Structures are given as C-alpha cells and as structure tokens.
Amino acid sequence: MRKRSIQITLWLDEDEKKKLNDNASKTGLSISSYLRSLIVGYKPKELPSDDLYELLNQIRRIGNNLNQITRKANALNFIDVPSYKYECARLKKLEDEIKKKLLDRE
C-alpha cells in the first residue's frame, strides 16, 4: 500500500521537463523524490563524479603502502627511504590533482 495518497498533475513545457529530468538525474533521485525534497526545503546535491571515487581509491592504496613501510620500519628498525619518498611524492601529486579537479584551483 502506498504511503502517499495524493496525486498532483503538473503541466510543463519541453524545456522545463528537460531541466527537471536533468536535475533529478544529477542527484540520482527519481523525479518524485526530487520534487518532494524541494518541497520540504532540501536542495539535493549532485552525485559525486567517478573521478572522486578513483581519487579515493588512490588515496587508500597510498595509505596502505605507507602503512606497510611504517610496519616494516618498526619491525626492522630501518626505513626504506626510496619507497617512502616515492609514496610521499604520489600523495603530493594526488593532492594537486584533487585540488585541480574538485576545487578548481592549483
């Protein structure tokens, strides 16, 4: 059984319909859910791009590598400096890429 029992018919022109569809699809919501969100005063945010998920995966991989280097350094009382510097450089490069792609600044 439906939770909502009231149906509303809305007339739109082609441009308005396209804009509504585009806005709803950017948020990942159905048109009904998108409109209900707007009615209660919530402006749904756009879904993150695939780039964000790839950047997060890269951060996780670098973090895992740094953790392995740290464990090895602790166990052997010796730091693998080339590996450490390489991972730090990757992290800095990734930071710059995030700033460029997501924050639109360098």
Descriptive tags:
single chain; 106 residues; mainly alpha; 2 domains; elongated
Overview of the molecule:
- The protein has 106 residues and is an all-alpha fold.
- The chain folds into two domains: 1-47, no CATH class; 50-102.
- It is built from four helices and no strands.
- The longest helix is centred in the middle third of the chain and has 27 residues, at 50-76.
Give the topology:
Blueprint: H1 14-27, H2 31-39, H3 50-76, H4 81-102
Helix pairs in contact: 1-2, 3-4
Question: Summarize this, please?
Answer:
This protein has 106 residues and is an all-alpha fold. It is built from four helices and no strands. The protein has two domains: 1-47, no CATH class; 50-102.
What is the approximate shape?
Answer: elongated
Uncertain runs? none
Nearest-integer average pLDDT: 88
Q: Could you tell me the strand content as a percent range?
A: under 5%
**Count of spatially separate domains:** 2
The amount of helix comes to 55-70%
Query: What characterizes the major β-sheet?
Result: none
Number of DSSP helical runs: 4
What oligomeric arrangement do these chains adopt? single chain
| Span of the ends, CA to CA | 53 Å
Rg value: 23 Å
Structural class from helices and strands? Answer: mainly alpha
Secondary-structure element sequence?
Answer: HHHH
- Care to count the β-strands? 0
